């Protein structure tokens, strides 16, 4: 379950910061920072996976497994938006992005649908149609360059995630999808959101309740992050 925004956000305020960002490519001397965002938490449990397992607890387990798997890597620093069953507003998640200035933001969710046949995992990014056309002055051109760079990186990571998740989880014929998710509003952070199957689908639910599943999914996501960052262990 996720939240989308209605009105496109103006990019004007960010232009100075964005110009700086242009000179800070991923893979420079310092470690790449990955901000993992387990969906929901606290008073908001998200969708129910089983009697005792909520989306909030499940996504936290995945995030912790990914963090554990990537710990000690030379070129990667993993940060979580929440490390317990905490209330965390969407605004707080966006603030965490401003604070950490990550090279990659990965939000984790579990889907639910009215159609019980809907199944499989889904990977979202903002998409190239996600922001309005700006007037063509110098600032707009710079902003477009940043926007395209960030979207290209989001798209590149999304494709890598699909590749690594494919052996773990069927997705039918769904490719990388775009949607105006609230957590995609930060214009300088490559960001994707992963919906790890539908709790409303019997087959998916069975998979989600399998005790080996969180580790397998975390392994796939961790490998995808390594590949994206060009870190040791990744296969670019
Ligand atoms: Zn959710």
Detailed description of the structure:
By secondary structure, the chain is of the alpha/beta class. The chain has a single domain, classed as Aminopeptidase (3-Layer(aba) Sandwich). It has six helices and six strands; from the N terminus they run H-E-H-E-H-E-E-H-E-E-H-H. It has helices at residues 15-22, 55-70, 90-100, 138-165, 202-209, 213-229, and strands at residues 32-38, 76-80, 104-111, 122-125, 177-178, 191-198. The protein has a six-stranded mixed sheet, sandwiched between helices. Helix 4 (138-165) packs across helix 6 (213-229). The protein is globular, with a radius of gyration of 17 Å. It starts with 14 loop residues before the first helix and ends in a 7-residue tail after the last helix. The chain binds zinc ion. Zinc ion is lined by residues 1-2, 39-40, 46, 55, 109.
- Principal-axis shape equals globular
The proportion of residues in beta strands is 5-15%
Would you give the CATH topology?
Answer: Aminopeptidase
Arithmetic mean of pLDDT: 86
Q: Supply the helix-strand structural class.
A: alpha/beta
Instruction: Spell out the helices and strands N to C.
Output: HEHEHEEHEEHH
| Number of helical elements | 6
Q: Which CATH class applies here?
A: Alpha Beta
- CATH homologous superfamily identity: Zn-dependent exopeptidases
